[in-house]
């Protein structure tokens, strides 16, 4: 429809130009021959030009309003499409901006959560370390105590052995045949007393 309207407009414009050119040519010719021709011929030319102008006006009046109406409708449709596209773009931009602002809040929440988890993990590790240190300390104390008891036993055993060795040496140095026979006699007497009691 658009191409037909353009074609009609071009045709009408061409006809108008031809008519104007003819009138201009005739007017120029009329000026040169103006003295020779009479006024009735000029009147017929003007009537002919008027009919041509009315015909062109009729054709233009018939074809131009639908063309302009179609063009107006097309422009209005393009304007509505552009407005709709702009609204969609603004909605998308608002959505993106909202997500970006929410992203900042999400990042801050993540940082806060990570910091809290790190503090909790640090506290847990400190408690675990304290428990392990206390356990190691108790174990070390038990080992030290056990080692001390063993050392005391060994020392007591060594001291007893030394005391026995020393007593044996003293007894051997003081023991002679008379003392030995007196000890044996005392021992036998003690045994007899014990046997009589039972």
Q: Compute the gyration radius: what is it?
A: 68 Å
Share in β-strands:
under 5%
Compute the number of helices. 3
Distance between the termini: 151 Å
* Helix content, binned percent: over 70%
**Main beta-sheet annotation:** none
> Could you name the ranges where pLDDT drops below 50 across 5 or more consecutive residues?
none
| SSE series | HHH
SSE arrangement:
Elements: H1 2-32, H2 39-174, H3 177-197
Helix pairs in contact: 1-2
Give short descriptive properties of this protein:
single chain, mainly alpha, 0% strand
Structural overview:
- It is rod-shaped, with a radius of gyration of 68 Å.
- It is 95% helix and 0% strand.
- It has helices spanning 2-32, 39-174, 177-197.
- It is built from three helices and no strands.
- It has a domain at 2-126.
- It is mainly α.
In short:
This protein is an all-alpha fold. The protein has helices at residues 2-32, 39-174, 177-197. The radius of gyration is 68 Å and the shape is rod-shaped.
């Amino acid at each position: 429809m658009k191409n037909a309207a353009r074609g009609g407009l071009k045709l009408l414009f061409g006809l108008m130009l031809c008519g104007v050119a003819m009138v201009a040519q005739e007017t120029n010719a009329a000026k040169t021959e103006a003295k020779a021709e009479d006024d009735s011929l000029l009147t017929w030319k003007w009537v002919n030009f008027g009919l041509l102008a009315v015909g062109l006006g009729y054709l233009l009046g018939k074809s131009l309003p639908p063309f302009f109406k179609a063009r107006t409708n097309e422009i209005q449709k393009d304007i509505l499409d552009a407005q709709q596209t702009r609204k969609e773009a603004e909605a998308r931009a608002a959505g993106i901006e909202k997500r970006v602002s929410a992203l900042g809040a999400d990042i801050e929440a993540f940082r806060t959560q990570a910091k809290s988890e790190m503090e909790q993990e640090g506290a847990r590790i400190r408690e675990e370390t304290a428990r392990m240190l206390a356990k190691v300390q108790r174990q070390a104390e038990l080992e030290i105590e056990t080692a001390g008891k063993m050392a005391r036993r060994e020392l007591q055993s060594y001291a007893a052995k030394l005391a026995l060795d020393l007593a044996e040496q003293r007894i051997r140095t003081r023991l002679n045949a008379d003392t030995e026979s007196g000890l044996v006699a005392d021992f036998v007497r003690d045994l007899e007393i014990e046997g009589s009691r039972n």
